[in-house]
């Protein structure tokens, strides 16, 4: 169904590009099905425990490397992390190419060369209706190559802050099913989070029968 109010592709901040509907329904369904497989144990989906004793409300599974706060490791639960598939890296390069075409800032950033983009880690997050993610920076990567983010399922309200602090200014960008968000360049280390999920907004044809939101971020660790 076409949106009543069209959502144009745009650079929401320098080096941050939002492309609504980048994934068509078939691609969304493929991602949901892949996530279903990745979620299974061993090395499956879990709520990450924070060093302060808290537990994250999102459920996470990682590919390529396992993220534990606040570093990347190769094993989880005593077994190797699931592999990062080549098709997902190819999606990442296509996504970055499209983002660079919309952003002069990314186009002039040496770290944002789409042809050379070799993401080696993905964080797959599942949000139920109550899940959120507090403002944070993605800064455990040694590389400053952009983060490529795919969203499917229920809409999530993504809060894009600034690289200096958790405070204002920020702007809220609703990420709907199929949306692409790339953040790099001067906003690679921008604080960001997800303030809420909008239940009941997932399209029916993508295989997320009970709703919820999946977000997959591709990153380059710069580790070996
Ligand atoms: O769910 C999102 O859109 C953002 C996820 C995120 O920030 C992360 O995994 O670090
Ligand atoms: Fe993040």
TrEMBL record:
Signal peptide limits: none
Gene3D superfamilies per the record? Alpha-ketoglutarate-dependent dioxygenase AlkB-like
Q: Which cofactor does it need?
A: Fe(2+)
Q: Which domain of life is it from?
A: Bacteria
Gene Ontology molecular function terms on file: dioxygenase activity
Q: Which residues form the Fe2OG dioxygenase domain?
A: 118-222
Keyword Nucleus set for record = no
- Which keywords label this protein? Dioxygenase, Iron, Metal-binding, Oxidoreductase
Under InterPro entries, the record lists: Alkb, AlkB-like, AlkB-like_sf, Oxoglu/Fe-dep_dioxygenase_dom
Concerning Pfam families, the annotation shows:
2OG-FeII_Oxy_2
Query: Does the keyword Metal-binding feature in the UniProt annotation?
Result: yes
Instruction: Please identify the protein, giving its name as recorded.
Output: Alpha-ketoglutarate-dependent dioxygenase AlkB family protein
Species of the source: Actinomadura gamaensis
């Amino acid at each position: 169904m076409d949106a009543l109010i069209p959502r144009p592709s745009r650079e929401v901040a320098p080096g941050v590009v939002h492309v609504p509907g980048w994934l068509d329904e078939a691609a969304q369904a493929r991602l949901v099905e892949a996530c279903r497989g990745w979620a299974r144990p061993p090395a499956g989906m879990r709520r990450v425990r924070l060093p302060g004793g808290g537990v994250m409300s999102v459920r996470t599974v990682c590919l390529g490397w396992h993220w534990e706060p606040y570093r990347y490791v190769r094993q989880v639960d005593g077994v190797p992390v699931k592999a990062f598939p080549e098709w997902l890296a190819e999606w990442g390069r296509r996504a970055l190419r499209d983002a660079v075409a919309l952003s002069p800032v990314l186009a002039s950033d040496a770290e944002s060369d789409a042809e050379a983009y070799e993401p080696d880690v993905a964080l797959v997050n599942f949000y139920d209706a109550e899940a959120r993610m507090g403002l944070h920076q993605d800064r455990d990567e040694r590389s400053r190559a952009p983060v490529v983010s795919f969203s499917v399922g229920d809409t999530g309200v993504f809060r894009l802050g600034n690289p200096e602090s958790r405070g204002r200014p920020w702007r809220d960008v609703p990420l709907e099913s199929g949306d692409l968000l790339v953040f790099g360049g001067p906003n690679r280390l921008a604080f960001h989070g997800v303030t809420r999920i909008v239940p009941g907004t997932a399209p029916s044809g993508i295989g997320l029968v009970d709703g919820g939101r999946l977000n997959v971020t591709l990153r380059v660790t710069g580790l070996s």
